[in-house]
Amino acid sequence: MSSEDGLTVTERTRLRRLREYGSHRRADLDAVLGAGFLCHLGVLVDGSPRVIPTGYGVDGDTLYLHGSVAARSLREAPQTEVCVTVTHLDGLVLARSVFEHSFGYRSAMVYGIPRLVTDPEEKLHGLRVLTGNCAPGQWDYARRPSRKELAATSLLALELTEASVKISDGPPDDGDSPDAALGLWAGTVPITTVYGRPLADPVLPPGIEPPEHIAALEGRTPGA
Amino acid sequence: MSSEDGLTVTERTRLRRLREYGSHRRADLDAVLGAGFLCHLGVLVDGSPRVIPTGYGVDGDTLYLHGSVAARSLREAPQTEVCVTVTHLDGLVLARSVFEHSFGYRSAMVYGIPRLVTDPEEKLHGLRVLTGNCAPGQWDYARRPSRKELAATSLLALELTEASVKISDGPPDDGDSPDAALGLWAGTVPITTVYGRPLADPVLPPGIEPPEHIAALEGRTPGA
């Protein structure tokens, strides 16, 4: 193992492909994690992998994530590793050849043995971090969890020690290959994700407008 | 195990949570898979789960997906199950209480033992299906894979037999709870994903315009 700027480089986080920009820099990891709030959590359940979409939030070196299935699998096999993957799809990379087609993306994979958060104070803190990332401003606006609700929530904590980041954002790389002579169009098609206009709950009494932190989301990109 | 409209219901695909709409209907699975092209593939590597973002395409009862890491793990442990998860994030569900916050989403999980596609004819067919889903029109427009490129591509096939679908698309469900009296705004904030304007490769000679199937993507939602 070698280390570079805070993240441990192991066999599985070593980056193999050259056409992508791979990184073990903590700043790149923070950038990818900070640009979203939905991850795909891989856990072992009865010996087979299960991939669960769930929300997350980062506080310093700790990734907090929701997960009842994961919590259950963790209780059954406490020392089992998980993999948390966060992917931002940025576009299609359309090359001259089918073979060189790919996606523009930023992704991070975090590995480790998660900890089930049981201390009520840390749980409240972790949920605050998670809510702040998934729904900014709502922790201060909405009713906070009761003791009973807190007990009914499964929160996991994963330390940001073993991780890798991959970023692919260039044009197709067959522009200097013999295929360039084919005269075909090649380039990228960006993909963007944006918030739309807030839609009130149909049973909301008239006269209650969305607060500023919600109204301000419209037209913005999550995490931007 | 029981079966409903084509998909096998097992302990892990049985749907537990009531506030979401769960389904084992094949039509719902097809709808979720048909609305995207990026999945998260969970495989076992050295006994731990790894979650890899990759492209996919569906042909009848077969899900084809790219995956060199998965192919490697499959060679090492041929009878190991994988989990393929496809998630479409449709919005934030902002409730009166933090506890009732959630996401609007559509997701599918497909389980099974994948098959490494080695027959060149099926490989070509599978890649055509995959390309047709990820980059419609490009199979007929771009240069198709050579024999050598085909050999360098790892393609997996997974049968659509064991799967579950979850859809969450309503307003927050605390509109009839005591929290409704708090007078807080509650509702949803939609999240949409759209293609932007095609961006030519900087080394593309002038005068080559994007073909109609690429130009037509702008403003559209992937899979819509």
UniProtKB/TrEMBL annotation, chains A, B:
Alphabetically ordered keywords of this record: Oxidoreductase
Keyword Oxidoreductase: yes
Origin superkingdom: Bacteria
Pfam families xref list: Pyridox_ox_2
Residues forming coiled coils: none
Oxidoreductase found in the keyword field: yes
Gene Ontology molecular function: oxidoreductase activity
EC number assigned by the record: 1.-.-.-
Membrane-spanning parts: none
Gene3D superfamilies hit by this protein: Electron Transport, Fmn-binding Protein, Chain A
Protein name: Pyridoxamine 5'-phosphate oxidase family protein
